[in-house]
Amino acid sequence: MAWYQQLPPPDPQLVKTLTAQQEEMRQQVVLQKPDFDLKLLAGCDSSFIGENILSVFVVLSFPELQLVESVWHYAPVELPYIPGFLAFREAPNLVKAYQKLQHIPDLIMVDGHGIAHPRRLGIASQLGVSLNKPTMGVAKKVLTGRHEEPAMGKGSITPLTHRGEHIGDVVRTKDKVKPVFVSPGHLMDLGSATAVALQTAIKHKLPEPTRLADHYAEVYKKEVV
Q1: I need a surface site. Which of 3, 62, 113, 132 has the fewest CB within 10 A?
Q2: Which candidate, 2, 140, 22, 143, places its Cα nearest to that of 79?
């Protein structure tokens, strides 16, 4: 039995409150071609350590992809685990980590989904609305929707669709490796998000912003555990 199946059922009133908040934020999501000149690109990721959460931001120059800054914030998780509302556990701590940045990024790449979510509000969209910043999601696994497998060569793309809507792209970022799932979060469009994902996936499956955020999460974890 999975660990989350052993948890007590969530408080119905809390679920009702979170559902209302999620719907309100979903209505604030704006999908558009970016209106910025991309010079600084952030990546972020979170790790749960017991009942605590470690959130990391890295900022890279673009298009050079040189590390400019990395920050982290470690704190107790504010909410219990409730399926479908994971972003509410992650977003508050990510915001606190973001507030530590000395260099303000033009775009944030999130290890997770944007609108490729059953209710169109994954962590990338929720974070974008919370910060009023352009965001995009790059996830390792599909959360919702259907897709055909892209061809095995780097740059191959197939659409991710859900209920007749094109919610993301399935992108092969490296020859013969599993694809990633790209979707716009907020103040971005799908085409631009997919282009950025491919431009920043240099040697690895993951684009450099989220790959380095994941790397530094492991580095900083040693400081708090």
Answers
A1: 3
A2: 22
Does the pTM of the predicted model rise above 0.70?
yes
C-alpha R_g of the chain: 17
Structural class in CATH, domain 37-224: alpha beta
Q: Who's near 211: CB < 8 A, 6+ residues apart?
A: 43, 204
Cα–Cα dist 180/168, whole Å: 10
Phi, psi of 161 (to 5 degrees): -125, 150
Ordered alpha helix ranges (H), 133-225:
190-200, 208-224
CA dist list (Å): 101 to 14, 71, 80, 92, 116: 32, 7, 28, 15, 27
| pLDDT tens per residue across all 225 residues of the chain | 443 455 667 788 999 999 999 999 999 999 999 999 999 999 999 999 999 999 999 999 999 999 999 999 999 998 888 888 889 999 999 999 999 999 999 999 999 999 999 999 999 999 999 999 999 999 999 999 999 999 999 999 999 999 999 999 999 999 999 999 999 999 999 999 999 999 999 999 999 999 999 999 999 999 887
Cis peptide before 63 (omega within 30 of 0): yes
Per-residue DSSP letters for 36-90?
Answer: S---EEEEEEEEEETTEEEEEEEEEETTT--EEEEEEEEEE-SS---TT-HHHHH
